[in-house]
Amino acid sequence: MRPLLAATLAAFGLGLAATALAVSGEPGFDPVRLGPWTSWPQLGAPEIDPYERANVAMDGFAPIGLNEGLSFIARADDLGAPLDARCDYTISGTDLPARLWTLAAYSEGGRPQANPANRHGLTSAGLLRTDSGDFVIAAARQARPGNWLPLGSTRSFVLALRLYQASTSALSSAYDGLSLPKITRGACP
Amino acid sequence: MSARISRLDRAIGLIPWALAVVFGAVAVHLLSLLALPALAPHSAYRRLAANLPVGEIRLLPRATPDNPGPSFSDPFAFLAVCRFDLTGGPLRLRATADGDHPLSVSVRLADGAIVYSGSDSQTPGGRFNILIVTRSQAEAIDAARDEQDEAAAADTGELRVVAPRSKGFALFRLLALREGEADEVAAQRAGFECKSEKPPA
């Protein structure tokens, strides 16, 4: 009787631990990585697998549907250093193939960051650009001239870039030609 | 020698128990994984729609630090949510885009799976007219409708979405182009419709 109880408890413990481990990492399989940006296109598709579905439910987010657009997350700069809100960052690029795109800063848990300006992101419609259509965004705690993305008081942060009604297909090799903004670290304390 | 044989016997005796633990652990893992979407306390369905009466639209405020909504919500997205339970009949969604602000609609099951998503640029005139039905309701509608009805439905741009399970929610996502467009967005969201329909005979 005792070995049966021990085996049952061990099976439950190991099984639940494996589930906890499975939903604690990245939200999906087969990520698309473009520089520091990562996307999980299957999260918005009908054929999402059970691991991704459990992950999405536990994280409590409602991913953008496949035909709504594309969503990317960055936790590091172009050189791979984790994003640190004490530093200044330059986010630069050319216009993206979408009807509208937005860029926002979040805490690690996915909450918009409180900041004195009470602004939590930028959109492609409100950006200042050069004549060629290029843009430069300054992400920093202190106000900057031009396109400023305010950062919050927590040290680490995450950037989310969303391309709504993107002209690239989420499931095709069109990602190959997609050029996402560069994230360059500037002054740090 | 006899002590070694006895240890070997004991080790061999443990093999069935070890296999039972492995198989049991795999079973517990798979069952708990499949059950998680329904049990997760903070899933999008539980947060947004679980307490919402069927056929009622809830307009959600934009994501802010004090009211973050689902994780990684876009601060420029104004969401509206509507719960469905198709056991009482199909659900019809209607929304019209103003042409300036991108609008998209997705139909999601309670476990988070997205069965349909589309944006205003993919619909005629930026109008959504979606009928969410079960497989049996779809068959009943097809059997009851004659060719004229089919043509009339096609004229209205009706899109029928067959949901594999009866419970879920629809999410309208209307995007502000810039900060401070709450009024324009509110006026457009007021036109969103979500109505239960009588089950087909």
TrEMBL record, chain A:
Domain of life (superkingdom): Bacteria
SUPFAM superfamilies given in the database record: VPA0735-like
InterPro entries, sorted: DUF1214 (IPR010621), DUF1214_C_sf (IPR037049), UCP009471 (IPR012038)
Sequence ranges assigned to domain DUF1214 in this UniProt record: 68-167
Protein name: DUF1214 domain-containing protein
Pfam families: DUF1214 (PF06742)
From TrEMBL, chain B:
Stated name of the protein: DUF1254 domain-containing protein
